[in-house]
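Query protein
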Amino acid sequence: MRNFSNRYIFIYSAVLVAVVALVLTAVSLSLKPLQQRNQRVEQKQMILKTIGMTSTPDNAEDLYAKHIEECEESGLTYYRFDGGVVVPMHGNGLWGPIWGYMALDSNMTVIGAVFDHKGETPGLGGEIASDQFASRFVGKSMSKEPIRLKKNADKSSPYEVDAISGGTMTSNGVTKMLEETHKQYYTLLFGCHDEK
């Protein structure tokens, strides 16, 4: 068995690590445009879903271009469609960022919503990404005040949605996210709106 000096082992290891690092960097950089495109397509699919349009990665960009108009006012981005607007939402859950989109008609009634998360607990806070959770918001109002997640919410209230069982911190994060969204977009989009 051949013995290698410590110097040889050190140089060999350093060269091997450098080669592997270069290969991984090259792969990462070459895939970055594809990753960014996939993120844009996913965002467009989420926005389309809020207005009731089903899309695939193949047709999302065409449907989006046909039905959605991106707008920016006072540093805030929102999306117009025939029948209302879609507002983006960003916040923090228990384990990381949470986000979503909410489609509102001209009376500020929710016609669709979609939520997602980076790392909420599956079966608990992770439930915000489910269609069942998002459907709780349809028909609720963002007119006078934001929608709040509450335990045993009053189903007849236009401003209350049942919180996630076992996901208190995520529910609180969603409520805070909705409050921030209402504060940012209410005056910009609906400042002159009077509820009937």
Observations:
- Confidence is low (pLDDT under 50) at residues 192-196.
- Residues 68-190 form one domain.
